[in-house]
Amino acid sequence: CFVQGLVTSGYIILLSRVGERVAADMRKTLFASLLRQDVAFFDANKTGQLVNRLTADIQEFKSSFKLVISQGLRSITQTVGCFVSLYIISPKLTGLTVVVLPCLVGAGALFGSFLRKLSRLAQDQVAKATGVADEALGNVRTVKAFAMEERELQGLSSGARVFEYLALVPTIPLSGGGRIPSNSLTGRVDFMNISFSYPTRPGHQILTRFNLTLPPSKTVAIVGESGGGKSTVASLLERFYDPTSGIVMLDGLDIRTLDLSWLRGQVIGFINQEPVLFGSSIMDNIRFGKPEATDAEVINAAKQANAHLFITGFPDGYNTVVGERGATLSGGQKQRIAIARALIKNPCILVLDEATSALDAESERVVQEALDRATSGRTVLIIAHRLSTIQGADLICVMSNGCIVEVK
Length: 408
What we know:
Layout: H1 2-35, H2 39-44, H3 47-89, H4 91-138, H5 140-145, H6 149-157, H7 161-166, E1 189-196, E2 207-214, E3 219-224, H8 230-237, E4 245-250, E5 253-254, H9 260-267, E6 268-272, H10 282-287, H11 295-304, H12 308-312, H13 331-343, E7 349-353, H14 361-375, E8 379-383, H15 387-390, E9 395-400, E10 403-407
Parallel strand pairs: 3-8, 3-9, 6-7, 7-8
Antiparallel strand pairs: 1-2, 1-4, 4-5, 9-10
GO cellular component, one term: mitochondrial inner membrane
InterPro entries: AAA+_ATPase (IPR003593), ABC1_TM_dom (IPR011527), ABC1_TM_sf (IPR036640), ABC_transporter-like_ATP-bd (IPR003439), ABC_transporter-like_CS (IPR017871), P-loop_NTPase (IPR027417), Type_1_exporter (IPR039421)
GO molecular function: ABC-type oligopeptide transporter activity; ATP binding; ATP hydrolysis activity
């Protein structure tokens, strides 16, 4: 009994370690698979549901893995032993068992299939509930401002899954394609006869026969009413989406033929209205734009972005932890760190999507000074409403109903 206990304990420990390793590898693989998906994929799936698959589903898989292996080996051993014993006692009865056993196995398989469907439905409900909770808690001020607490709680109740995402192949590959040598890259961008509808709203045309040229080292501003497609132009340049028809070209080459990681990582700097910072240090947040950057490069980028002065005013300087989504910083401070993050990779093209629209007058002035410095010598696309943001542009394009209607 003592030996059997030792063997059993060792077996359980081994299974636990194997299960932990398999679960960890699967979580890493699934996370990498999700990061490779297109922006359209994240438009159609809630963050909470995706996180649920990385946590609850992986945990469920780990438990099932250990159970199946341990019970499976035990059942196989017992079955073999029973057949041997039965054959010794009565060969005829053994033959009858061989006939009956497949029927029992078939019935068990059908019952198991039914249970798997029920389990999947239960997991779907958990994922939906997690998604609703994630949105409600992440936007709690909005929920409370509209007194929608009760509605979010009804949302909670109506609310192979891991392998489903592992098998997904992004329609826009992150790597592969050509690169333009840096010494010959001019930064000319051409939008040629572009039509576009978002994948989640295929019947709603955002851009219709849209044409625009961004000359090298010039600043082009796009203005127009909300919902007119201005930000969509920036998203197509970043290749968050591909146009339904038409071509976006960089230096005369279709951007679909260029390496996407190179395009986003080295060529285009993107600054939008709501800068997202990570819950780490200021140094790490700026270095996110160029992971191999030295401390000196980080500091230089911060100086260009008018951020060095306020950063050094903190007790921990560049090692100051900004909190989740940069909660400990003001809007203007977050925006300047986002500008530094974009500038540290020295992009040839700079995209500013409503970069100052959420700031007060004083913060806008400081940030605008940083942007004026950042745009010098680069091809710049500005999406804006405020006159102060676009008054220095070389070309101002008025957009309406998905196309350019006037150029100034």
